[in-house]
Structure formats: structure tokens, C-alpha cells
Write a structure and sequence with these properties.
Distance between the termini: 36 Å
Strand order of the largest sheet: 2-1-3-4-5
Shape: globular
Number of helices: 8
Structural class: alpha/beta
Largest sheet: 5 strands, mixed
Strand content: 5-15%
Low-confidence stretches: none
Helix content: 40-55%
CATH superfamily: Carbonic anhydrase
Number of strands: 5
CATH architecture: 3-Layer(aba) Sandwich
Length: 207
């Protein structure tokens, strides 16, 4: 089995290539890691060196480790409904950048995201949500500024999912930590959207 040493550093470009290649294996049904590799896990007991930090949605159909065919120690994954950036999420990402030195950061959305749909319903139809869900949905609303209220519902959701990914990316990029790391050339930030039916991941053009 051809895999990388989880203790060896990986550049952002190489990390992105590994995600793309891993997703291709997943889509084609040729995954390398169908079962747990306990030997790799044992080698990580003292430290970890993930090559990518992924902020993704909590949706059970979009597990990053599976759709990118990644092994233990390769991905530092943060999952929250709607892949929103809260203070807790920002703190976790800061940990990944400062302590784990992760070179690649990915915001991963997915088709027909329930949180994004709820935000659209609140914005255009004034559909209320339970209090805690509404707090989360309000984090998504700024991303919907340019969504056409007269568009077809399917197209509207698709545009909103991508816009929400870009909104999280923008907040990360414009944070003091994001600006500092960008100035150092220390990291790469990319966005992506997963197709639920196939598991194929589409990486977005840079913002």
C-alpha cells in the first residue's frame, strides 16, 4: 500500500493534491483505507502532523476522512452544521495553524445543506427556527446577500451553498491570524463543495 509517513511535513500544494487524488479514489471505489490501520494509529500516540485542516458540515453523509480516503493523522477535522465560523471553530483553527502547523485549510460545504436552506427560508420566507438553530442560521445570513430571491429553488440553494463556503473562507482570510499567515506565505485556503449523490468534491476557484 502506497501511503505517506504521517510524521513527515507536507506542503499545501501537495496536501491539496492528496485530497483531490483521495476523492478520486473514493468516487471510483478504489479506496486505500477500507479498515482501521492500528499500526498507523499507534505511531501517532506522541504527536500529530495533519497536512490539512478541514472545516466541514456535520451532515452524516459528508465525512471528510472517507470522501478524501485519508488515514489516521492526515486530516484535522472540524465539523459544525453549515460549516460556519464561530469563536470556538476559529479557536480550533488557530490551534491547527499555530501548534500543528497545518499548511492547508479547506472549507467544505455540500449540496442541499440543511443549515443553508434554513438560512434561505429565514431570509426570504421569514421561517423561524428553534432558538439555538436560529443563532447558527444567523451566522449564514451574511453570505446570502447576493442570492436572487426570484431564482429557482434548486438553483437558489446551490448558489447559497457555494456563497456560504466563500463567506467562511473570507472570515478566515480576513482574521488577524489569517492575514499574518498569508503574509508569511505559510498556508493555503481553499473552498470546496461535495456532491451528496456521488461523493465527488468540487474545489472552488480562489476568492
Amino acid at each position: 500500500m502506497n501511503t505517506h509517513d504521517p510524521q513527515m511535513p507536507v506542503s499545501a500544494q501537495e496536501g491539496l493534491k492528496r485530497l483531490i487524488d483521495g476523492n478520486e479514489r473514493f468516487v471510483n471505489g478504489t479506496v486505500r483505507f477500507p479498515t482501521m490501520n492500528k499500526e498507523v494509529l499507534a505511531s501517532l500516540t506522541q504527536e500529530q502532523h495533519p497536512y490539512a485542516t478541514i472545516l466541514g458540515c456535520s451532515d452524516s453523509r459528508v465525512p471528510p476522512e472517507l470522501i478524501f480516503d485519508a488515514n489516521f493523522g492526515e486530516l484535522f477535522v472540524i465539523r459544525v452544521a453549515g460549516n460556519v465560523l464561530s469563536p470556538e471553530v476559529a479557536g480550533t483553527m488557530q490551534y491547527a495553524g499555530m501548534h500543528l502547523k497545518t499548511p492547508l485549510f479547506v472549507v467544505l460545504g455540500h449540496e442541499n445543506c440543511g443549515a443553508v436552506t434554513a438560512a434561505l427560508d429565514l431570509k426570504f420566507r421569514n421561517v423561524a427556527q428553534p432558538s439555538r438553530i436560529e443563532l447558527l442560521v444567523h451566522n449564514i445570513l451574511p453570505s446570502l446577500e447576493n442570492i436572487d430571491k426570484h431564482a429557482d429553488r434548486t438553483a437558489q440553494i446551490a448558489c447559497a451553498v457555494e456563497a456560504n463556503v466563500r463567506w467562511s473562507m473570507r472570515q478566515i482570510a480576513e482574521s488577524p491570524e489569517g492575514r499574518a499567515r498569508a503574509a508569511e506565505g505559510a498556508y493555503m485556503l481553499v473552498g470546496a463543495v461535495c456532491e451528496i449523490a456521488t461523493g465527488r468534491v468540487r474545489f472552488l476557484e480562489p476568492i
